[in-house]
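Quarterly update from the structural biology core.
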Amino acid sequence: MKPANKLIAATYLVLLVLAVLAPALGLYPVFVMKLLCFAIFASAFNLLLGFTGLLSFGHAAFFGSAAYFTGYAIKSLHVTPELGLLAGAFGAGLIGLVVGLVAIRRQGIYFAMITLAIAQMVFFVCLQAPFTGGEDGLQGVPRGALFGLLSLESDTTLYYLVLVIFVACFMFISRIVHSPFGQVLKMIRENEPRAISLGYQVDRYKLLAFVLSAALAGLAGSLKTLIMGFATLSDVHWSMSGEVILMSLLGGVGTFFGPVLGSGIVIALQDMLADKVGSWVTVIIGVIFVICVMAFRKGVVGELQAYLERRRQAVLK
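Predicted structure, tokenized:
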């Protein structure tokens, strides 16, 4: 194993140990669970933008619709939490399939605007549909018991479930990117005409990447409903799509840990500043984002990786 890979593996191991010990270290479990949910959301978005080169302005549609699917399934249909999570992820994947079949026929800003337009349609449905609760949202969603046996009412118990799901999603995305399928996605991102000339059916690859990203984003939204006990219109609002873009760019698009770090920065700032500056927290985060984009064009993790690579090249010379 190369020294750089050893350092990365050691860093991940340390972070995993800290995550396992988080409740014992006095960290508020609900805050960390929310952070992990948005880390999954940002990582799912990064799979589409960072590794496939497709910019979606409508990922809130998958996050929010899954939140409603899970909330309704658990509260009204009385299913167990794991089935509720699967329902949310599967429902978001189906919506992603429909959106993808329409959107992947276009590129660039046209692709982004189609995803935004369809996401606004999903928002309108969530506002008007009788089972969503309208402007009040779905309130009082119970956590239930995992497989009908393990109660999730305890924050600590639910925290470890969320942590296991996060680690599984992170490893799943890593496996996708390092697989032959992932290499084709990178080729499409770098030079789509060349991928077509080599005989790859590019639209199928992009559609599958879109559906996978939508399903993972939906899983994040489902977990958020299970943790917080409600699903609201803010989950499916266009500003949520903006937040996940911000998280990915801030941490570093096209990196594995960048979206996780970016989501941690944004969620931590929102949590610390919300009760002090109110709605100005959005302005403050926006200013920080502009500064980071100007100073760290590749994001925090991207710039760190570039610095380490320059150091390595200097040593080799």
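The chain has a mean pLDDT of 89.
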